[in-house]
Design brief:
This protein is of the alpha+beta class. The chain has seven helices and twelve strands. Strands 1, 2, 3, 5, 8, 9 and 10 form a seven-stranded mixed β-sheet that branches. Strand 11 and strand 12 form a beta hairpin. Helix 4 packs antiparallel against helix 7 and helix 5 crosses helix 6.
């Protein structure tokens, strides 16, 4: 009611009636009974759109440090090695390209602990970053240099093993863990390990060539070490019955650790990769074993392998030896 207005007797009577109604039913709304339509109830909110399947981003948290020393960081949500490096780099505010490789449960350049295609759910990840760059002149005195090459899954090939008494073994500045950055000033960053091994194998005997190497940055207690990887128990994972399986193509999955057959067959195939191609790669060996596990003959095995690893163009003699090794393990001969 505006200032100066008066209430008529009829209005006063109506107001009194409304007050009495309120007294009779205090819990009733004042607006109950009025003729104004009420707004219809709002529909329930739409559910959020479904996200990606959970298996694409396993919610697993891993602890990590830089191998030469750093605080401990926590990472999760990666599905392949490149994403793993990006997560580690983000934690320590470095570029992913600084990371040469990672080891599990050891800060040392220990090829037995090298992170490959699987991480135990309780494993601690140590990232080895770029350190000293060095150039060495090499002259082949025999067909093989005595190097075994692997790669980090993100474009860096590095030395995994040096054969005792070989040409490279005589060059004391060359160490296990060194990233091979260039051959004769030709950058090989981005090349796979088998491509690098082929380039080195094709270097002519008696003609010097240059390797540009990048060693991992070392902690104080590691300076001066020249690590040579032992041959036993290579690639053992950490504790726990489950691992996170990282794949170069496709999503990461949590799976049981390898059974005895798979472990023995993978080790044998990895040995054959070194013999035929000068590389070691447990992820590659595991994929080969998986391709041949349920095949009935070598032709089916070769077809299955070509469908998933056609880029490697494995020679027939290698495929037959791998098929034989898998069969020997199945039959308990190894």
């Amino acid at each position: 009611m505006q200032n100066g207005e008066t209430m008529s007797p009829q209005d006063s009577k109506a107001a009194g009636s409304e007050a009495m109604e309120d007294q009779k039913a205090p819990n009733q709304s004042r607006n109950e009974g009025c003729m104004e339509p009420t707004a219809p109830p709002l529909p329930p909110p739409s559910p959020p759109p479904p996200g990606p399947p959970e298996y694409l981003r396993p919610r697993l948290i891993f602890h990590t440090q830089l191998a030469h020393g750093s605080p401990t960081g926590r990472i999760h949500g990666f599905t392949n090695v490149k994403e793993l490096y990006a997560k580690i780099a983000d934690v320590f505010n470095i570029s992913p390209s600084e990371i040469l490789f990672c080891t599990l449960n050891s800060h040392k350049v220990d090829m037995q602990k090298l992170l490959g295609g699987q991480i135990g759910l309780e494993d601690f990840i140590f990232a080895h970053v770029r350190g000293e760059t060095k150039e060495v002149e090499v002259t082949k005195t025999e067909d093989a240099l005595g190097l075994t090459i692997t790669d980090n899954g993100a474009g860096y090939a590095f030395i995994k093993r040096i054969k005792e008494g070989s040409t490279i073994d005589q060059l004391k500045s060359v160490c296990v863990g060194d990233h091979i950055e260039a051959i004769n000033d030709q950058s090989i960053v981005g090349c796979r390990h088998y491509e690098v091994a082929k380039m080195l194998k094709e270097q002519p005997r008696g003609i010097p060539f240059t390797l540009r190497l990048v060693g991992p940055k070392k902690a104080f207690d590691m300076i001066g070490m020249r690590t040579r990887a032992p041959k036993s128990n290579e690639g053992k994972m950490g504790n726990g019955r489950e691992t996170l399986r990282l794949r170069s193509k496709g999503a990461a999955t949590v799976q049981e650790v390898q059974n005895e057959f798979e472990e023995q067959a993978t080790k044998k195939v990895d040995d054959l990769l070194e013999s035929y191609m000068g590389i070691r790669d447990l992820e590659l060996a595991t994929t080969i074993v998986e391709a041949g596990r349920d095949k009935k003959n070598p032709d089916d095995f070769a077809e299955a392998l070509d469908s998933v690893l056609g880029d490697f163009a494995f020679p027939d003699v290698f495929l037959f030896d791998v098929w034989g090794a898998i069969g020997d393990v199945k039959n308990g001969k190894i």
